Each structure stands twice: as C-alpha cells, then as structure tokens.
C-alpha cells in the first residue's frame, strides 16, 4: 500500500469498444427480458407477469450499465475509491435487483415444455445443489474479497483489461448467486429456511465489515494505491455494503411466504394417519 494505483493503458479504439460492448449487452438483455415477459403475458393472461419484476430486472441492468460505463468506469480505473463504487454496483446492488426479476421463472414460463423440463433438471441437479449452498455462495462472494485484497491478485487483475473484466464477471456471478440463495424468488434445489438464511446473511455482514476494517487500517492489505484512496475505498465498502445487505434482508422478508400447514381430514382415523413404527 502507498504506491500509485495502476491505470490500464487505454487507447481511443479500445476505450470506445469498452463503452459500446457493455451498453449493447445491457440493451440486448433488456430487450430479451421484455420480449419474454410479453410472451408470458400472452401465453397465460390470467397469470401474466408482474411489472414489478420487470422493473426490478431493468433496474439491475441499469445499475450494471452505470458501473461499466462513463463516468464510473474511468473513475474506477484511476482511483481505488471508484473501483469500490464499481464493485458495490456490480457485486451487490445490481445482483439483488436482477435476482428479484426472477429470470429463471420467466424462462420456465416461456420455454417449450421439453426445454423447461431440462432447465428444471439442471436447477435441481447435484452440482446446482452444491453451488447453491449458502456456505459456497458466501465463500465465493464475500470470502473471495480477502483473497482479492490481501494478496497480489487485485494488482495483477487490474493491470490488464482482461483481468479487470474477469474481476467484473466474478463480482456479478458471485453476487447474483448469494442474492439468489438468500432472497431469490426463482426455484431453488434446497433453499434453507428464513432463519438459516438470516444467519448466513449475518455472517456475510460480519465478514464484510472485518475485511473493510482491516483494509482501512492497512493490515495485510496488498493494494498499490495511495493510502487515502485505500481508506476511502474501505469506508465505501463498509457503509455501502451495509446498505446493500440491509436491502437484501428486506428482500428476504418481503419475498418470504410461510409454508401452508396441511390439516388432517376430520374423517381420517388415527391409525391411518399415524406414522409407521
């Protein structure tokens, strides 16, 4: 810590390309989602597709585009505080909005029956169960921050454009995974109960706070940037992360639905309803 922040070399051509690609990708995703939502409403007018979910998904895409386009993207290249703003947008705020848009459910409602069954089989497969475990999601999202900022990985990744984009991809995918596990509305192979998810969210909040405080104090931090930038980035991580995790907790409570309790039929005899010994 205490060195100048590496600024990746950007020629005018590559700068234009780095602006056009995220903008076009966000536009394509938005148009695809809108077309699928329209198809879902036409296929089943009674069930339809809520405008709230559509607005949530489009908000997520807007946050993602904001992080990847000027003025945030150039600021993130030049200043560690900008990197942290970008990290929060890509890895915490945008994923929550995207996940609440229920893209998997939308696909299941619009795909042909055979493809929908294959997608359901993938969602409930053993690899999906492993990846969707809260411990794995926490390790990939929050646990990876220690590896990123307390080893030379951050400096190596940000020194090359390809490494920077891989970093963005990791933030986005791991953030979506954690938001999906904690407060997702899409079908999940084995989503734990609300209390268990709140515990895992509490662990994530604590781990996030520890990483940001260690970064602010300069303990074990390996970031080639001026100390004021690193401390400013740590503050952004601390307070911005808290807000994002409170929003995630609110989404968990808002999307929670109690399991219906099945009542035994009054005509059922105790012997028939009793569990076998």
Strand content: under 5%
- Overall mean confidence score, pLDDT: 88
Largest sheet: none
Question: Helicity range of the residues?
Answer: over 70%
- Rg from alpha-carbon coordinates: 22 Å
Could you list the spans in which at least 5 consecutive residues all have pLDDT below 50? 2-11, 264-277
Beta strand count: 0
Distance between the termini: 66 Å
Order of helices and strands, N to C? Answer: HHHHHHHHHHHHH
DSSP helical segment count: 13
Derived structural class: mainly alpha
Tell the overall outline. Answer: globular
Describe this structure in words.
The model is unreliable at 2-11 and 264-277 (pLDDT under 50). The protein has helices at 12-43, 51-68, 72-78, 80-100, 103-110, 113-123, 126-131, 134-149, 153-158, 161-183, 194-217, 227-255, 270-273. It is globular. The N and C termini lie far apart (66 Å). Helix 4 runs parallel beside helix 12 (227-255). By secondary structure, the chain is mainly α. Helices cover 74% and strands 0% of the residues.
Question: Main attributes?
Answer:
277 residues; mainly alpha; 74% helix; globular; disordered N terminus; Membrane protein
């Amino acid at each position: 810590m205490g060195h100048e922040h590496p600024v990746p070399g950007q020629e005018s051509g590559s700068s234009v390309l780095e602006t056009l690609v995220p903008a076009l990708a966000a536009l394509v995703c938005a148009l695809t989602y809108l077309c699928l939502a329209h198809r879902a409403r036409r296929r089943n007018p009674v069930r339809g597709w809520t405008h709230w979910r559509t607005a949530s998904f489009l908000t997520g895409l807007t946050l993602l585009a904001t992080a990847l386009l000027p003025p945030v993207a150039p600021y993130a290249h030049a200043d560690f505080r900008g990197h942290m703003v970008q990290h929060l947008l890509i890895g915490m705020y945008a994923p929550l909005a995207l996940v609440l848009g229920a893209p998997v459910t939308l696909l299941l409602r619009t795909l042909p029956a055979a493809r929908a069954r294959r997608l359901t089989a993938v969602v409930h497969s053993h690899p999906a169960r492993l990846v969707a475990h809260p411990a794995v999601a926490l390790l990939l999202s929050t646990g990876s921050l220690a590896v990123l900022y307390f080893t030379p990985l951050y400096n190596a990744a940000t020194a090359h454009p390809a490494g920077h984009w891989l970093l963005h991809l990791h933030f986005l995918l791991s953030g979506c995974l954690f938001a999906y596990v904690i407060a997702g509305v899409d079908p999940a192979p084995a989503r734990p109960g609300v209390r268990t998810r709140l515990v895992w969210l509490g662990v994530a909040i604590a781990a996030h706070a520890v990483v940001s405080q260690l970064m602010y104090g300069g303990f074990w931090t390996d970031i080639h940037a001026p100390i004021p930038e690193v401390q400013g980035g740590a503050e952004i991580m601390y307070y911005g992360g808290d807000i994002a995790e409170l929003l995630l907790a609110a989404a968990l409570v808002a999307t929670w639905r109690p399991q219906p309790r099945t009542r035994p039929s009054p005509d059922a005899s105790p012997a028939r309803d009793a569990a076998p010994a």
